[in-house]
Amino acid sequence: MSGAAPRGMAAIVRDAGLAALIALGVGAPLLGLRTEPVGRGLTLIPRPGLLLSVVAAVFVGRILVGLFMAQRALRRRVISPAPRAMLAPPGFRSWLGRAAGPAMLAFALLLPFMPGIGRYEIDLGTLVLTYVMLGWGLNIVVGLAGLLDLGYVAFYAVGAYSYALLAKHLEIGFWAALPLTGLCSAVWGIILGFPVLRLRGDYLAIVTLAFGEIIRIVLLNWVGLTGGPNGMSGIPRPSFFGLPFSMAGGEGTFAGFFGLEPSPLHRIIFLYYLILALALVTNFVTIRLRRHPIGRAWEALREDEVASRALGLSVVAVKLTAFATGALFGGFAGAFFATRQGFISPESFTFIESALILAIVVLGGMGSQIGVATAAVVMIGGFELFRDLEQFRMLVFGLAMVAIMVWRPRGLVSSREPSVALGARKMVGAEHVAEGRG
Amino acid sequence: MDYALQQLVNGLTLGMIYGLIALGYTMVYGIIGMINFAHGDIFMVGAFTALIGFLLLGMGGVTFVPLALILVLVLAMAFTSLYGFTVERLAYRPLRGSFRLAPLISAIGMSIFLQNFVQVTQGARVKPLEPVVQGGVVLSRGGTVEVTLSYMQISIILTTLVVLTVFTLIIGRTPLGRAMRACEQDRRMASLLGIDTDRTISLTFVIGAALAAVAGMMYLLYYGVIDFFIGFVAGIKAFTAAVLGGIGSLPGAVLGALLIGMIETFWSAYFSVQYKDVAAFSILAIALIFLPSGILGRHEVEKV
Description:
The complex is a heterodimer. Helix content of chain A is 66%, strand content 5%. Chain A has helices at residues 9-30, 48-78, 92-110, 119-144, 153-169, 174-196, 201-221, 223-226, 254-258, 265-291, 293-303, 305-310, 315-341, 351-364, 369-385, 391-407, and strands at 33-38, 41-46, 232-233, 343-344, 415-416, 428-429. The longest helix of chain A is centred in the first third of the chain and has 31 residues, at 48-78. Chain B is mainly alpha-helical. Chain B has a domain at 24-228. Chain B is globular. Classes of the chains: A mainly alpha, B mainly alpha. At the A-B interface, helix 1, strand 1, strand 2, helix 7 and helix 14 of A face helix 2, helix 3, helix 4, strand 1 and helix 9 of B.
């Protein structure tokens, strides 16, 4: 794959033949034969056409890749190879980097009022922003503190269920419940984190994964409290600071108060701005915390745990704050999710959600706020784009995750601005983050 | 007492299946330090290949059970190893030397892909298989409950023991095993000493996938039903087992798997079936608090 020397056509064809042979082997049992239920048992239906067309596609695709690689190797030879710069080139790219954030923010702020934007687009925007917020929340844990958390969805679930319980049983309104749900999630973050944060790297990852599963199983089986697999429905919808959204449009409603024509769009737009505000709060807090001693401690810990300990940081306390802060924002997002949907069930809090959020953080470039937002737009937007493909959607999604990772292992935004710098601030290539240079 | 004995037998069988999967995790972790998230799905592919193998033999008229078992085992191992090889080649090798999380995300993507690949090509419905091995030995019938050791359980335990012996010999006695252990200790040094590390890593994935295929076939025979989603839960359990035993340690993986199998079986027998996974995961968390590197794992000393 290195493409050091351009290869001849014969080698490319041979390589493609080998790839096709492997594809034939891989595809033979699962693509070539299909198990169909007959009576009480199963029977096999051969599908040679499908198998052969896939093998042919692999052969042709491999030849094209081979030719492309050979071309590139040839070009590389003629023009001297570009040095892999540690510093991002100045000029256009840094201008783009500076302009991207405000441009995206302006777009997000104006989205509901743009021409041609209907209910569907605003709903999609709300969904994307939910993931942006979750991504930013997890970014604190993974990107800043360098702790691999595979069970972030647990805090999302805790937030959603605690809002649902508070609102339904104690009749606490959304705005009063919001801080409580965040607190609840943060406490769970601490309860989980306290015993396990001594663990390193992958041990921590598996325990967080286990914790996510435990929460889901408990939600699924504690029927008395959570409704079990049926979930909880009839969760109160948010009001506009006490003014409910109602189609009747009476005296005490949002539409009535502002003298507007009652419309179902009001609530949708309100929800959109609500999650936008929550996401921006997450972003703002993260940016401020990075300059705060706690944030610096997180990044120091990510870069070198031994050195941080030697300098007197309490590793467990630092990790706990990161965990609890991440959990807090996960909880907020969960409360928003519950109030937006009006219905929650354990189905929404599976491992795949955790994987998706983690993928957004890593694909965006860990620690980069704008990268995470971009990745959320790309992933969730792309996911929606393939809605018509139905069952092929997840197939494409999995493949895209692999492809993006192979293409850009460091994520979409692969340079960082150091949080603290002596003298001039230089952009740092992401390959140097977590090596003591970020 | 008899009831407990029966549960012991069941737990042992389950633990053996987990053990075969856990070895794949622990080997890959030991050699390249990544969590091969797609390994559970390789196990699922193994189970499906075995199912198709049994159906083929049934249509071909092979009725002698031991022959059918061996043929299907070889078939499933061969095809599933090819999956292990391809997955490593496509999703992990280009990311070698990249930062820690890149292969993990790539593996999660591969796992989603494999699950949906099987769902799309084979359908989402549960696939039943008629019992291939029936009957069993009654160990005791004195008490209130009859304790039976089914031929199925015997063959699972025996096959696993044979496979484990062969596997231990490969790791301990062959040049390939020596290369694998060398790569595990220090990959750069091993390559300086003339070991083809890429090939060794490839073969590690192939062996891991072959072991997962054995586990997949056992699972199919034991439970009689499979679907495209079995890889996820089995994969997490096996990984939990590998971590519990001390990740990177081969005997540890089997030991951890037996423990997880026992905990799960006894918990469902005496407390509640719904919370068996909670029990397994909680034991993992508790064990890791007191033994942060697992039961048989080496405690890593970090030199600065």
